[in-house]
Design a protein that fits this description.
Structural class: alpha+beta
Distance between the termini: 21 Å
Order of helices and strands: HEEEEH
Number of domains: 1
CATH architecture: 2-Layer Sandwich
Strand content: 25-35%
Largest sheet: 4 strands, antiparallel
CATH class: Alpha Beta
Strand order of the largest sheet: 1-2-3-4
Oligomer: single chain
Shape: extended
């Protein structure tokens, strides 16, 4: 699996290089292998975090949309999320 991460480089360096080459603007959380960035699309703006877990050879990408679900729709949203993530 290490061949996927580039010659002698860490997974974190590979991720950083990807975001640089794809022209993402980001900053690194101090002392952590986590990048912070924003994304704006047609449906809104997200705060995003790209985390590398070198030991587990994992890359995790979190995106957070700052929208509150109306109280009357929360059960439907919870059910959707449960179904969407079933089996992951």
């Amino acid at each position: 699996m290490s061949a996927l991460f580039g010659k002698g480089g860490s997974l974190f360096n590979t991720v950083v290089n990807f975001f640089k080459e794809d022209d993402w603007h980001f900053d690194q959380m101090e002392g952590k292998p986590i990048l912070r960035m924003g994304f704006r699309g047609d449906s809104g703006s997200w705060r995003c975090y790209a985390q590398v877990r070198e030991e587990q050879q994992q890359f995790v990408f979190y995106s957070i949309l700052d929208v509150n679900v109306p109280e009357g729709r929360r059960q439907a949203i919870a059910e959707f999320l449960t179904r969407a993530n079933y089996g992951l």
